[in-house]
Amino acid sequence: MWRASILTLYPEMFPGPLGVSLSGEALANGSWALETRNIRDFGQGRHRSVDDTPAGGGPGMVIRADVLADAIDALGDDGRPRLLMSPRGLPLQQAHVRALAAGEGAVIVCGRFEGVDQRVIEARGLTEVSIGDYVLSGGELGAMVLIDACVRLLPGVMGGATSGDEESFENGLLEYPHYTRPLLFEDRAIPDILRSGHHKNIAAWRRSEAEALTRERRPDLWAAYQARQPPQKKRK
């Protein structure tokens, strides 16, 4: 079973959106498991203090290395990757999500305040992961994004085995446009090719649309995609 163990100061935030839709159904039927641990349970002193002022001065507070280390150690080490949600982390990409989903789960630390003492990051082998170039109040929402991305790839969660094969990022491109009924919506018709029944032409149209969208919206993805193509298949 794929297991997510969350270390957080706000365990009441979970499962949150993970408890509904695909991830919620999969959680209910035992396809994956969610465990939350309150970092404050390992706090110092009568008030269970978990943070202190930054060494060298500066604003805000920093989560203590000893407190977080105790919280991590209480989980034991079962080989699952240990992640820290952080805006300075490596960007979360679909390839990373697939690798995580293929494993046994993850231990995910949700930071708060100004951050986490660097020494515990190094001492406990935490890999910093970012879901985007912006800053949130804490790592909990980022952890939910990561978990949802992984859970939907678990066997049986999305239904058909190929349900996610043509989604954005799976083949280096953004996903092609989708259409359904009604045939005509506010003078906008479904493209004729999609009603032709010619599967080879439909596949070619979808690939062309995906390439055009990627080229327009994500030049970085397009450049990487082009670099992987044989010279005769490269397009401007």
TrEMBL record:
One of its GO terms (cellular component) is cytosol. GO terms for molecular function: tRNA (guanine(37)-N1)-methyltransferase activity. GO terms for biological process: tRNA N1-guanine methylation. Homodimer. SUPFAM superfamilies: alpha/beta knot. It is found in: Cytoplasm. It catalyses: guanosine(37) in tRNA + S-adenosyl-L-methionine = N(1)-methylguanosine(37) in tRNA + S-adenosyl-L-homocysteine + H(+). It is an enzyme of class 2 (transferase). Belongs to the RNA methyltransferase TrmD family. Its EC number is 2.1.1.228. This is tRNA (guanine-N(1)-)-methyltransferase. Residues 4-223 form the tRNA methyltransferase TRMD/TRM10-type domain. Pfam families: tRNA_m1G_MT. S-adenosyl-L-methionine binds at residues 111, 131-136. Specifically methylates guanosine-37 in various tRNAs. It comes from Labrys okinawensis. The keyword Transferase applies. Keywords: Cytoplasm, Methyltransferase, S-adenosyl-L-methionine, Transferase, tRNA processing.
